[in-house]
């Protein structure tokens, strides 16, 4: 009996939980998608070309091979983009305030589950959109944005997803920080208690999808930047969740 229990305990230590398997699957999917986008770079160009409005080059711009613009300067769209850009960080600040409030309680009044979920949300926001997307990838991978490349009237050569050959020096295209933040927002759905989860799912999903689509239409990012940035946040969230997961956690989470 003792040996059987020891073997069972050893097996649990060797194999990840279901949350761990989800993280591994998502992590592998991210790399597969990167390989696909890197191997077939024309996908990015074609996707951005659908939003590019070609114009006749003016005599003063005779040296340009392509002239035109992306439809990104409409006041309504710019306002909507600003709201979506700030929303994840407003939500993050609100969650931080809730977490601080949690730790003002002790003993029987301390809500350990709520504190755990808030820490998962905040840690994944800082690691995914914050550290990996904005401070590591965008700062060092050097991929020019579509609007900056020769394909769309810019001055830089196009480089495929994941390439380090780009000449962009700062705030570059790979990956999209806003798409990562939008992906993070969608992850919060699983931490919202019912019945609020059902009511908020569709609005959050709409924001999570519309945010990267607007960046694509603005010529600010390629399709690969958006897909990989969006999925990056979900991978990081799944990793943080799996790290804190235990066999005794409740089936339903709440914030």
TrEMBL record:
Q: Which Gene3D superfamilies match?
A: Phosphatidic acid phosphatase type 2/haloperoxidase (1.20.144.10)
Asked whether the UniProt record includes Signal among its keywords, one would answer no
The UniProt record lists the keyword Membrane = yes
InterPro entries xref list: PAP2/HPO (IPR000326), PAP2/HPO_sf (IPR036938)
Q: Where does the source fall among the domains of life?
A: Bacteria
Q: Which residues form the Phosphatidic acid phosphatase type 2/haloperoxidase domain?
A: 120-241
Return the SMART domains for the record. acidPPc
Question: Where is the chain membrane-spanning?
Answer: 20-40, 83-106, 118-137, 200-220, 226-244
> Keyword annotations for this protein?
Membrane, Transmembrane, Transmembrane helix
Its protein name is PAP2 superfamily protein
Its organism's taxonomic lineage begins at: Bacteria, Pseudomonadati, Pseudomonadota, Alphaproteobacteria, Hyphomicrobiales
């Amino acid at each position: 009996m003792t040996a059987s229990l020891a073997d069972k305990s050893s097996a649990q230590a060797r194999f990840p939980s279901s949350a761990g398997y989800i993280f591994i699957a998502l992590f592998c999917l991210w790399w597969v998608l990167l390989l696909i986008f890197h191997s077939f770079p024309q996908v990015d160009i074609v996707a951005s070309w659908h939003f590019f409005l070609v114009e006749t080059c003016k005599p003063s711009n005779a040296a340009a091979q392509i002239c035109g613009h992306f439809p990104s300067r409409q006041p309504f769209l710019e306002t909507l983009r600003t709201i979506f850009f700030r929303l994840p960080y407003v939500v993050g600040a609100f969650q931080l305030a809730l977490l601080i409030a949690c730790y003002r309680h002790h003993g029987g009044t301390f809500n350990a589950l709520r504190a755990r979920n808030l820490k998962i949300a905040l840690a994944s926001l800082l690691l995914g959109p914050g550290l990996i997307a904005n401070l590591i990838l965008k700062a060092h991978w050097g991929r020019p944005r579509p609007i900056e490349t020769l394909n769309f009237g810019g001055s830089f050569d196009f480089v495929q997803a994941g390439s380090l050959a780009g000449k962009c020096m700062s705030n570059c295209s790979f990956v999209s920080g806003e798409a990562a933040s939008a992906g993070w927002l969608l992850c919060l759905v699983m931490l919202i208690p019912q019945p609020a989860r059902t009511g908020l799912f569709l609005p959050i999903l709409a924001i999570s999808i519309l945010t990267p689509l607007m960046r694509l239409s603005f010529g600010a990012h390629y399709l690969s930047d958006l897909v990989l940035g969006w999925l990056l946040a979900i991978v990081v969230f799944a990793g943080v969740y799996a790290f804190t997961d235990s066999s005794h956690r409740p089936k339903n989470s709440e914030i």
